[in-house]
Amino acid sequence: MIQERRIWIEGTEYRLLISDEPQALLAAQAAGRAVLGVEDPAAEKWTMRGIPYVVPGWEEITEELEEMVLRRRLGFPWIIAASDRLTIREFVKADAGQIPVEECTLEEEHFRSEEAMEQYIRNQYAFYEYGIWALVEKEDSKLIGMAGVTAPGEKIFRNFKLEPLPFQEQWLELGYHIFEPYRGKGYAKEAAAMVRSYAHDVLSARLIAVIHEKNQASRAVAESLKMKLIPERDPGCAAAILPQNGTDTQWQNGHLLYGECCLSLPDREDS
């Protein structure tokens, strides 16, 4: 079966071909079209090789999925969330030239290269469906910072008492960086709250954040999300246990780990 969907994005109509016939999908893809495959449950072997997006049945197709597949094919960024002041979206290659040199940390340096940005978009977003996203001020469409989630490093799991999560849930590390001219306006707290909602509702994730003890602004953002300080595993480490009076734990030259513990995530429709 072959179906064609008409999808409007930013005022322009595009078309998506959906089918459970591999040859029809490959032919449409070779012609430059966006395609979505549907598995044949009766097939004895995998027949959808070369099709980037495949669902296990027709009932799994949603309007949101259709738009996402189309945006991936066209190179349009996926919109993560929006408020009255901000849009959080995936980066596009052209964003590399808008990030001030003085605002880049070593971890963020690759975002200033169009080539590296293009690789990040292709490898991170298309594979994981999450990453670091662009923060855009709605009023003048300016890039004012970045925020998002990444997979935590193994050291965090070795050093801290992170509770085991139920099946299909995951820990993700929250990050946010507002460029200097736009600080002090509440953008970090606003963006972090939207990222948290997306992490809960779409990614089935709980958040952690590594923050220096002297960074009171970032600590206030984490605490506004009801994140708590997480103690280290090794009781022999100096200042490693979270004291009863609630003072800070120490890690890596004064860095702290905040996390969403004892949290019940909403049930996902596709779970």
From TrEMBL:
PROSITE patterns: GNAT
Name used for this protein in its record: N-acetyltransferase domain-containing protein
N-acetyltransferase domain segment(s): 86-268
A Pfam family of this chain: Acetyltransf_3
